[in-house]
Write a structure and sequence with these properties.
31% strand, 8-stranded mixed beta sheet, alpha/beta
């Protein structure tokens, strides 16, 4: 029986969606995930985790290299769980993401031969991220240990720099961490009850690619006292280049970063970013694509699909701060834009006004409830961009009741996208085509724009 510590020689068959090598071992053909290994390579590996249906192994020695292997740029590669594909050439990354999407549509979505276009490359392969989110802990003898999680873990790899975030964010993050360590506030404990001064859960640094505005959010597990707020203000105000800073309070357990209440520390509580000819205002907690250059290309493409038959009315679900809404409305259609997260939804109207767009009806409501209510109306096109979990069954039911001629579905998760496509197909829609966009170079994640039409037969 295989056990932890056993050593095997394996050949890597392919890569999974997380960028891990995949092999099979033993008579039962146990699936083995091997981080850092590439398809076609042979390696000696040590089993580090054994589960019922799979195992995880570490490379001890490689006997050959894939022709697509390149030298990772980051010194933390392999220890940090952020960028699993730094060792794979960029062209091969794009091919992998197209394959990941096609496999999900076939295996989960039930599509026999889905029409999947080539993956749209990102304008920037490095330094593209306009946001850095760092969990903060009191661990390993450090009062404030901040960084990114190790693969398959909630243990933190201390932040030493990151090559995929904008260089200005990288420099600013190091200054912010140094300033926070000068206060008496510490990170939370990973296990067990945190002491009173162990309050910081996360820090988020956002910088607009095209306006240069930079906003900081310090997320705390409880409301800081007036003395603690004074400490934060005093430490952070000295950092040059910050447009503003807020303290967000999230007392809820779980991995969701944001709470509903924020306290201003200094400067602006919002920031602006430009996508194409539009400028958008939003808060630190608002959803906004992390790759501004690629977001503009994706929104232009999705809008072109939605507006192809010149629909008079479009229903947009999960609208965020109205980023894609503006691109849709520019085509002349009337847009009903629905967003659940109130700190984002409240900016849809003001962003429309700032960009001179009038045919937008914003609606701050739970998408599940709003979609059911709006299913009584007629829309020529529905556009949606849900979170990674995809659509609730109530939303799918509402889409089938609306029976729009076309659905444009934007997704950051091929698996839940494929699941929802299957549900829609069972209700009379057909997949026309899917186009992946590389919103996250050096990682296994892929963004997709799908066009579905109603089967009129």
């Amino acid at each position: 029986m295989m056990k932890q510590g056993d050593i095997f020689r394996v050949k890597i068959d392919n890569l999974n969606g997380e960028g891990e090598g995949v092999a099979r071992i033993g008579e039962e053909g146990l699936v083995l995930f091997v981080p850092g290994a590439l398809a076609g390579e042979e390696a000696e590996v040590r089993l580090v985790t054994k589960k019922k249906n799979y195992g995880v192994a570490k490379v001890v020695k490689r006997f050959c290299d894939s022709p697509h292997r390149v030298k990772p740029r980051c010194a933390s590669f392999g220890r940090c769980g952020g960028c699993a594909l730094q060792h794979l050439s960029y062209g091969a990354q794009l091919s992998l993401k197209k394959k990941t999407l096609a496999d999900a549509l076939t295996r989960i979505g039930g599509e026999r031969e889905p029409r999947v276009f080539d993956c749209e490359p990102s304008p920037s392969e490095w330094g593209y991220r306009n946001k850095a989110s760092l969990p903060v802990q009191s661990a390993a003898g450090e009062c404030l240990r901040a960084g990114f999680y190790k693969p398959r873990s909630h243990d933190i790899v201390p932040y030493r720099g990151c090559d995929i975030v904008a260089p200005e964010i990288d420099a600013k993050t190091k200054e912010i961490l140094s300033a926070l360590r000068g206060t008496r506030l510490c990170g939370v404990r990973l296990n067990g009850k945190s002491a009173e001064r162990e309050t910081i859960r996360e820090i988020v640094v956002r910088r607009a690619r095209f306006t240069g505005e930079t906003l900081l959010a310090v997320i705390c597990r409880r409301a800081p006292s007036s003395a603690e707020l004074k400490l934060l203000r005093g430490a952070l105000r000295e950092i040059e280049g910050l447009s503003g800073a807020v303290c967000n309070i999230n007392e809820s357990p779980g991995n969701f970063i944001w709470g509903e209440k924020s306290v201003p520390l200094f400067g602006k509580e919002t920031m602006r970013e430009r996508l194409g000819k539009f400028v958008f205002t939003f808060e630190a907690s608002s959803f906004f694509q992390v790759n501004s250059e690629q977001a503009a290309k994706l929104y232009e493409y999705a809008a072109s699909l939605a507006l192809e038959d010149l629909p008079r009315e479009i229903l947009e679900l999960y609208a965020g701060v109205g980023g894609m809404t503006a691109f849709l409305a520019a085509g002349g259609a009337k847009i009903t834009a629905v967003e659940s997260w109130e700190p984002a939804a409240k900016y849809i109207a003001c962003n429309a006004e700032a960009n001179g767009i009038k045919k937008i009806t914003p609606l701050a409501a739970r998408v599940e409830e709003a979609a059911s209510e709006l299913s009584k109306k007629n829309y020529g096109t529905v556009v949606l961009d849900p979170p990674r979990a995809g659509c609730d069954e109530k939303v799918v039911a509402a889409l089938l009741k609306i029976a729009a001629e076309r659905i444009v579905y934007v997704s950051c998760n091929p698996a839940t996208l494929a699941r929802d496509i299957k549900r829609l197909a069972e209700g009379g829609y057909e997949l026309v085509h899917a186009k992946p966009f590389d919103m996250f170079p050096q990682t296994g994640h892929v963004e997709t724009v799908v066009l579905m039409s109603r089967d009129k037969d």
